[in-house]
Amino acid sequence: MAKDSPQRTAARRGESRGTALSRAAEFGHEAMVKLLIETGQADLESRDDLGYTPFAHAASGGHEAVVKLLLETGQVDLESRDNLGCTPFAHAASGGHEAVVKLLLETGQVDLESRDNFDSTPLSDAAGGGHEAVVKLLLDTGGVDLESKDEQGYTPFTHAAGGGHEAVVKLLLKTGQVDVNASSYYGFTPLTKAAEHGHEAVVKLLLETGQVNVNKTSLSGTALSLAAESGHEAIVKLILETGQHQHTSAQYAQCGETMHYPSQGQTLALAIFRSGEAGR
């Protein structure tokens, strides 16, 4: 469930039309960056069309040596924000750039809980991208909110589960501080997102906690109905085997008139259960 955008894609393709320093930093050309800095004429805080500074480009690309060079000038704003509200630290976390994240953490000057225009935090971005090492670094700081929600109401744990990132899901579960039934603003939970996208290993992990409510209903249905609708038979069987599923239209009442009856997917799941295929 890692998010991307045309702006971020454009930046990676070099379509940002920045200064010479900005372009050199974007592509990780350490010697060129050093040369431009030494002229004393380079604008270290110049911004391109995307609102990226040279430092933001270096962090976003995971160019550790360039990030270090720019930090050593003492003239870069570590909390500068681009047009999407992302900081250099958020870019590094989102890209899974462990070395750069570590370097920035060591400065003690980055906001671990900075939120972009989508209300996403560095932890959410790292978790959604499946970047286990970065997630671990952030957790080790003790300064991140594991239950922060973005503009859609997704927590870092939901992003990890929905993206099928088993290692990150395990890491977050080990903290004992995540709500395994956290609901988004449309009722989606880690289980419903994992089931919908066919992430069997993650669904199994969630069910093994013994804490998930398999009957929580999102705008699109329950984990069971979403898995069945998408044809994820192994996941349907896993959920049926818990013996906790319900096949009542009442669970849909909260989602509006279009949800008063079981979906085609849930009907399929019921057929599988009745045929005796589940649990074999």
UniProtKB/TrEMBL annotation:
SUPFAM superfamilies: Ankyrin repeat. The lineage of its organism: Eukaryota, Fungi, Dikarya, Ascomycota, Pezizomycotina. InterPro entries: Ankyrin_rpt (IPR002110), Ankyrin_rpt-contain_sf (IPR036770), Multifunctional_regulatory (IPR050745). This is Uncharacterized protein. Residues 1-16 have a biased composition (Basic and acidic residues). PANTHER family: ANKYRIN REPEAT AND SOCS BOX PROTEIN 2, MYOTROPHIN. Keywords: ANK repeat, Repeat. ANK repeats lie at residues 50-74, 152-176, 186-210. Residues 1-21 are annotated as: Disordered.
